[in-house]
Amino acid sequence: MEAFKMTQDLTSTVTLNNGVAMPIFGLGVWQADNASAENAVYAALKHGYRMIDTAKQYGNETGVGRGIARALQDGLITRDQLFVTSKVANGDHGYAQTTAKIEGTLHRLQLDYLDLYLIHWPVDGLYVETWRALEDLYKAGKVRVIGVSNFDVHRLQVLLRQGNIVPAVNQVEFNPQMQEQEMRAFAKQHGIQVEGWSPLGHGSAMGDPVIGAIAAAHKKTPAQVILRFDVQSGVITIPKTVHEQRLVENADIWDFALSDIEMAAIAGLDKNERSLWYPAFGWYGSDTDFGMATQKWPDSPADYDA
């Protein structure tokens, strides 16, 4: 994995540990229904985005696929310019399940391959087997890059010991108040690129006076300063929105840079506190309500058309 370089625009990339170039900024679509996801994806690609992040768990792969198909048909982008991520749902863990269920994801997305496929949550007792399935999907050309999401250092160590391929990406919560210092240091040591979901901390950091003062100095919004901090920290960043104006604003972070002093000031806001609900999920076992719900989800594309 190459060292992070100062970024210039939405086409900027970082080279992963298998040599694939991944955009450092993209669109997340968590909590969007299919119609909203379709429109957001189309608008994002129209405005220069090149990376879209979804998951079977989100229930909107069909909408994302429609947005991509429209953009391709209208000539906004070509497939080789696009980087699409999806994730293995909790109920799809295990070698046979993972190997089979990717076909539903590809069908819903209207794609022949994924650019990045992640284990969404480390379901204990199954994630090593699931990782072996991802390794074989990678070798078969179904995916260009494989990685994980929401893995701590211990579970990354397990994969490094028992797997054959080092994960290229670990997608975790990253924002000024949750900076994953231990995991990021471990990832850097082993050539694993960190990608950050909830880069704005669910809005919790935008009212901080440190952020506000830096935003005023640069004539930017607090959100733009936070997103610049995320990217400048070397973290691939995927803010979620379904509003066209907001996705344009989110991407307007390439005409300024934070100084070392400003970066240090924002780094000092780290509370090691997660902004969202998932601590109640424990370490993501399939015996929780969340895990059981995903196991019940069908795979027919029609079942994702709500």
From TrEMBL:
Pfam families per the record? Aldo_ket_red
Q: Which residues form the active site?
A: 58
Signal peptide residues on this chain, from the entry's feature table? none
Q: Which InterPro entries match?
A: AKR, Aldo/ket_reductase_CS, NAD(P)_OxRdtase_dom_sf, NADP_OxRdtase_dom
Detail which positions bind substrate.
Answer: 120
Give residue numbers for the site Lowers pKa of active site Tyr: 87
Q: Name one GO molecular function term.
A: oxidoreductase activity, acting on the CH-OH group of donors, NAD or NADP as acceptor
The protein's UniProt keywords, in alphabetical order, are: NADP, Oxidoreductase
PROSITE patterns documented for this protein: ALDOKETO_REDUCTASE_2 (PS00062), ALDOKETO_REDUCTASE_3 (PS00063)
Q: Where is the NADP-dependent oxidoreductase domain?
A: 28-270
User: What highest taxon heads this organism's lineage?
Assistant: Bacteria
Q: Which family does it belong to?
A: Belongs to the aldo/keto reductase family.
Q: What's this protein's name?
A: Oxidoreductase
| Organism for this UniProt entry | Lacticaseibacillus sharpeae JCM 1186 = DSM 20505
